[in-house]
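Sample 3 of the quickstart, ligand adenosine-5'-diphosphate:
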Amino acid sequence: MLRRGELNKTSGARHKQSELTGVKGPLDTSSSTQEKPLLELHGLSTGYGETQVLWDISLHVMHGEVVALVGANGAGKSTLLNTISGLLQSWEGTIVFAGRDITRYRAERIAKLGLVQVPQGRRLFGGLTIEENLRLGAYTNRAGSARAIAADLERVYMLLPKLCERRKQLTHSLSGGEQQMCAIARGLMARPNLLLIDELSLGLAPNIVDDLLTAIDNIHRQEKMSFLLVEQDVQIALERAHRAYVLEGGHIVLSGPATDLLKSEKIRIAYLGA
Ligand SMILES: Nc1ncnc2c1ncn2[C@@H]1O[C@H](COP(=O)(O)OP(=O)(O)O)[C@@H](O)[C@H]1O
Ligand SMILES: [Mg+2]
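Result:
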C-alpha cells in the first residue's frame, strides 16, 4: 500500500519547478518542451447566463500525471470540470486534449476520446445494481463489443475488488464511500486516459477517503492513467498530487509542485488552518 505523498517521490521528478508562482498562464514550462501535455487549457472563461464564473484559466496535465485543482466552495471548480468535459460551453479560450482542439466538442464525443468525468455527487442510478451502473459507464467504451465490456468489468473488479463482492447490490443501499468507489469504477469503464474526479472526499470519513485514494494510487500505477483531482480538502489533494492549481473566485491564483504548495505560507493560512 502506498503511503500518503508517495506519488510525489515516485514520478514527479520531471515536473520539478523551483518556485511557486502567482499565475497568469501555465507555469510548468520545463516539461512542455520535452513532451506535449495530455490536456491543455488556454485562456478559458465561462459562466452561466450573464454571470461570469471563470476568468482566463490556463492549465495543463501531462501524460501519467496526477494534478489537483483546489479551492473553496464556490470557487468555480465544478464549473471548470464541466467545461473541460463539454457539459458547459466556454465563452473564450481553447481546450486541447491529446493534441486535438476539443473546445467545441460535445460531452459524449469528449468522453469517447478518453476524457472522462466522475461528477460531484456521484450521480449513480440508485435503483440499479453496481454492475448495471458499471455497464452504463461503458456506453462510450471505445471498443464497444460485449466481450470488450465483459473484459473491462473484470479489469475494474480487479482494481476495486470490494465492488465485485457487491456487484448485485442496488447502489442506493451502498455507503457513501462505496458509492464513490462505484462512481470511479463507472468512469473507468469508459477507458479513460484522463479521469476528472470532482470532490472525491466530500462527505466521507477520513479512513474511507484513504481507501479510495489508495485505490486511485493503484490505478494510477497499474494503468498509467492521468488524473485531475478536484478537492475542497486541500491537504488531501496536495498530499496525493504531483502538481496543483489553486482556484479563487474563478481565477487561478497559484500553481506549482504539490509539495511546494503544501509548504507555502499562503496555502497554510488560507486553506490548512495553520
Ligand atoms: N447551474 C448554475 N447556474 C448558475 N450559477 C451556477 C451554476 N452552477 C454553479 N453556479 C455558480 O458558479 C459559481 C461556482 O460554482 P461551482 O463551479 O459549483 O464551484 P465549486 O465547485 O468550486 O464549489 C458559484 O457562484 C455558483 O453559485
Ligand atoms: Mg463543486
